[in-house]
């Protein structure tokens, strides 16, 4: 919401000719009787075609009546009569602004201010135009100037808040909205925009309060209903979010943005057909809406309509090339279907998404495989989750024959484990990197740098190792001196985005698995004591927990625990990456749409030769997967 300052109508004529008639016309204009005022101005112009006030005020009425070509004609005729009126330049700038001719609008605001340097309306509207052009710093400076003229001008505070919000300076924007509301407590637009800013900084309850306040005073405020829907979505109050979006669409049935937002909620509820219909409706209303195409791509991917999804992502990228998230979604889809050449290249966009990966800055150039590393020291810095680091650590030894020196910076809890990588590699903590280096590369850019294709996956295992003595001691203890086979279990992920698709319960697992031949060992991190106790109570099945090992923080101990197992059974999480890197036989249960690294329609993994993949054939239906897993264990 960007709002121009109010235009003014002269209270009296600047000339005496037809003075009485002009005053009568202005009075009609000010009272809202535009057609009568327009006729009165026309009567004056019939007598005197170059009457300045009648020309400029006829232009203003035409603008207010949405007759923009006629308005511009009147303004230009007025400018041929006089070029010393700041009000005329300001009003003409407002017309050009409305027509999205922002540069021309700014030029006219500048002419107005050259004549009247204290014309606050021109400063405000100039700031709004600069915001539209994304020249945020200039916009804020312009609106600051307006506030030096009148610190109590609420419109200046409101539009300054909008500029700060567009510049992602959200705490300052919220303060500016506060100032606008303090000066004008009836400004519902300010409440609405503050609600949006509060949502963006995560103050969801405060945001909801603002939207509810607007709706309580104006039941037909569609933007507030839509904003409220977004907040309720983030609060996981999905049904209420859908109700709020429905209210917004009842008021504005052709609002493409609201259809797109509702499509996102429906997608999260796995109501894919409804989500698809909303997103297609959004695009039908607004064919240039890049975000709707991007969201459509996500839904089509989950429906396994991959080619259509790729087309949707490319449409989004064409319409708005500046959105990194579109390229990120495209990258993961291309990698999923096995298009590695393009997938790795697009995957570099992860460095620019809202919460970027692999984007650490150093006073050294980035290496992406193009330059020789001979005699140079390269720093590889870890990124993303622990599982990602374990999976892609295999690339680091491949650099050693080509570089003078290789340094690998990892989280502290992985330093011991990564010390077992082959080659002359220096392992350092990623908390504070003080060693000198000539160039650097984020870990997950290495497949791109090496030009990895399916035929060239570095899949030699094991490439990590556990403490043999500790592993053997654990194995003797867990297997009851060899009397039982040992199966390590992990069954959930804490990922907010995909955990609900991947996770399974212990009860579901043991509805299918026969526990007779195995000792089952807990490889799950987090507090799972309640679920394990419930399994014991209901089914009499014991899951062994090795209390001296912290499965989350003690990665060396965790590796030894996995090494002690005969087989690992897990969903897609960190556990399987460590098991695969250790060369352990691993059975992996994958959802209908798996993460990109598991590809499609295959039961093996080119990353980990000792893995077997068991895939859902129907969304959320684990029963066939569990039957196959049970057979594999037997």
Can you walk me through this structure?
There is one protein chain. By secondary structure, the protein is α/β, with parallel strands linked by helices. Among the domains are: 272-352, Tetratricopeptide repeat domain (Serine Threonine Protein Phosphatase 5, Tetratricopeptide repeat, Alpha Horseshoe); 377-456; 468-633, Glycogen Phosphorylase B (Rossmann fold, 3-Layer(aba) Sandwich), CATH 3.40.50. It is 54% helix and 8% strand. The protein has 31 helices and 10 strands. Strands 7-6-5-8-9-10 form a 6-stranded parallel sheet, with helices on both faces. Strands 3-2-1-4 form a 4-stranded parallel sheet. The chain is elongated. The two termini are 63 Å apart.
What order do the helices and strands come in, and which of them pair?
Layout: H1 19-30, H2 34-47, H3 52-64, H4 68-81, H5 86-98, H6 102-115, H7 120-132, H8 136-149, H9 154-166, H10 170-183, H11 188-200, H12 204-217, H13 222-234, H14 238-251, H15 256-268, H16 272-285, H17 290-302, H18 306-319, H19 324-336, H20 340-347, E1 377-381, H21 386-392, H22 396-399, E2 405-410, H23 415-418, E3 425-429, E4 439-442, H24 446-449, H25 468-478, E5 485-490, H26 499-502, H27 506-512, E6 518-522, H28 529-539, E7 543-544, H29 555-563, E8 567-571, H30 574-581, E9 586-590, E10 611-615, H31 623-633
Provide a quick synopsis of the model.
The protein has 634 residues and is an alpha/beta fold.
Notable features of this structure?
Serine Threonine Protein Phosphatase 5, Tetratricopeptide repeat; 31 helices; 6-stranded parallel beta sheet; Rossmann fold; 634 residues; alpha/beta
